[in-house]
Amino acid sequence: MQNPRQDIGTSLPANLWLPPAGIALLILVLSSIPGKAFPAHPDFLNSAVHFGEFAVLSYLIARALYLSSKTKKLSSLLMTCFFVSVLFGVATEVYQFAIPHRLFDPLDILVDSVGALAGILVFWGWVKVPGT
Known about the structure:
By secondary structure, this protein is mainly alpha-helical. It has four helices and no strands.
């Protein structure tokens, strides 16, 4: 994977946004599966999947924002990333009202938010810690 600190310029913005768009699409596809189509699984597995999806999503959004931004003001970029990731988590939960045997779960939003924060912290560490 390319170092997020490397400035690749703005000539390839699609390359920066394709990975987070792909993860977002995957999340939407998984959110569209009717609840009874999922095999029985423990609750912690559901939370682990939510956490992982949103950690990866927020990391990729942070990377795209950072590399495509001219200001490089990290705190603003990471706050934007967190807001977008959490908003997407809320939107997917609301969307599930329309899916048979799926429901809006505030716990999923909390886990999504913690996952998003984890992804942002990993990105922040990669940008701020020398030698990584």
